[in-house]
From TrEMBL:
GO terms for molecular function: DNA binding; DNA-binding transcription factor activity. PROSITE patterns: HTH_CROC1. It comes from the Bacteria. Pfam families: HTH_31. Keywords: DNA-binding. The keyword DNA-binding applies. This is Transcriptional regulator, contains XRE-family HTH domain. Residues 8-63 form the HTH cro/C1-type domain.
């Protein structure tokens, strides 16, 4: 294992942050960051490690190293391991039955997959963890028995698996699921585009922003309608979502201009699709693109623009039509904007709203827990935030 300071330097480089930018976001001096990275100054406080992890957008456990494993990290690890084992059976290739369960008919399997997706979109992550190991096994057996009708449910099973694993901070296992999805989808441009949505999430979560942008653009333009005005809404939703993924990757890579251009392009498609739809589980529409603009503003540190846009967008009908998971995840990002604006009260307010909409986004997702811990340490943090952090053992 690398020393803590070296891990900080490594992830700072992956996030394209200078020592000065990291120092500013932590409220420290550049000299302090330099000493930490060189090992001259030790990091003994868990709270300081959590602050750094939040700015670097990684699980705090990555900086803790081997010896410190919070209970929540252990629980997530157990769930991830069960899913990893389900993905490691290779039933299709080995042509062996994993159990005495009968092969599930494709129609029933499709309903089970839809249930898993709905449960995920309601941010009931522990329940999805319980569903997925058996669902993966069933989907693989159905596909082996009936490749024609079992193909789409299997791709969708791998997609929801990858989406959950990214939420749980396990991009390495998510990569296995999404790679399987892409392979099964080969030859079907729509299924490839759908699987590519999760591929973009996995690549960004792994810090591979340049690759993510390139792959997302290739996938988007492969499914793009020849004329936007006459495009199929479902395919336009996939294309627009992939453009949003590419824009977020560009923003994380420090390429703000490209991010804005790609979001403008996605907005044209969103205007044709409209709000209130969820084609291929994308939630794509005008509001989704506007939320992405706010996340990009947060990423470049423009707190004023992010807060102003946020207060406008969340009053629309389109906001309430988005899946609970989408809204709560977005609010975690907006909490950072309020912290950058030195407004812990509103940062706490949006986190409590996220907890109301989708509790698991705060209580089980590493990024949500880290955001809560950071706000709770602010002197002006709301009492409810401090109480929730204490309940979750984040004090």
């Amino acid at each position: 294992m690398l020393p803590v300071g070296r891990r900080v330097a490594y992830w700072r480089g992956r996030r394209k942050l200078s020592q000065q930018v990291l120092a500013d976001r932590l409220g420290k001096s550049k000299s302090w960051v330099d000493k930490v990275e060189r090992g001259v100054r030790s990091l003994d406080k868990v709270s300081t490690l959590q602050d750094i992890a939040t700015v670097l957008r990684i699980d705090t456990a990555v900086l803790f190293g081997r010896d410190v494993q919070p209970a929540a990290v252990v629980e997530r690890a157990e769930g991830v391991e069960r899913i990893r084992m389900a993905l490691s059976t290779y039933e299709i290739a080995l042509e062996r039955p994993a159990s005495r369960r009968p092969v599930m008919p494709a129609e029933r399997l499709a309903r089970e997959v839809a249930h898993a997706w709905t449960t995920f979109q309601y941010a009931r992550y522990p329940q999805v963890v319980e569903l997925l190991p058996q669902l993966v096994a069933d989907a693989q057996r159905t596909y082996a028995h009936d490749p024609g009708r079992g193909r789409m449910p299997l791709v969708e099973t791998y997609r929801v698996t990858a989406a959950l694993l990214v939420k749980l901070g396990a991009p390495d296992v998510a990569w296995l699921a999404v790679d399987r999805a892409m392979i099964v989808a080969i030859g079907d441009r729509v299924l490839v585009a759908a699987a590519a949505v999760q591929l973009g999430q996995v690549l960004r979560a792994s810090g591979r922003t340049k690759v993510a942008k390139s792959v997302m653009l290739a996938a988007a333009y492969r499914i793009a309608p020849p004329v936007v005005e006459f495009g199929d809404p479902a395919e336009s939703s996939l294309c627009g979502t992939l453009l949003v993924q590419a824009a977020l990757a560009a923003a994380w890579d420090g390429d703000d201009r490209t991010a804005v251009e790609l979001l403008d392009e996605a907005a044209e498609m969103a205007a044709r699709v409209g709000d209130g739809h969820d084609h291929y589980r994308t939630g794509f529409g005008t509001t989704a693109v506007d939320l992405a603009r706010i996340v990009v503003a947060v990423e470049r540190g423009d707190a004023e623009e992010a807060v102003t846009r946020h207060e406008q967008v969340t009053t629309r009908d389109g906001w309430s039509w988005l899946p609970a998971e989408h809204r709560a995840a977005y609010l975690v990002d907006v909490a950072r904007a309020y912290l950058y604006a030195d407004d812990p009260v509103n940062a706490g307010r949006v986190l409590m709203e996220a907890d109301r909409i989708a509790p698991a986004e705060i209580r089980h997702r590493p990024a949500g827990r880290d955001a809560l811990a950071q706000v709770a340490r602010e002197p002006a943090a709301p009492a409810m935030i401090i109480q929730l952090a204490a309940i979750l053992g984040l004090g």
